[in-house]
Amino acid sequence: MIKYCQSCGMPIVSRMSLSFNKDGSYNYDFCKSCYKFGKFKSET
Ligand SMILES: [Zn+2]
Predict the structure, then answer these.
(1) Which of 8, 10, 19, 44 is deepest in the core (most CB within 10 A)?
(2) CA nearest 35: which of 6, 1, 3, 2?
(3) Domain limits of the chain?
């Protein structure tokens, strides 16, 4: 099953593309390009 990033729409094909939450768990809603350790990159 392929998930898509809820921000940019990029298909998340593997865990390598997943972002992480602040506690280090996987965040399945966003790719690592958009979201990192509890923060959106665009918010910086
Ligand atoms: Zn994304």
Answers:
(1) 19
(2) 6
(3) 3-35
13 and 4 Cβ atoms separated by less than 8 Å = no
Prediction pTM value:
0.78
Q: How far is the CA of 10 from the centre of ligand 1 (A)?
A: 6
**Residues that place a CB less than 5 A from ion ligand 1:** 5, 7-8, 10, 31, 33-34
Distance 5 CA to ligand 1 centre (A): 5
CB 17 within 8 A of CB 10: yes
- Segment 15-35 shows an average pLDDT of 93
| Strand-strand pairing, 26-31 and 18-20 | antiparallel
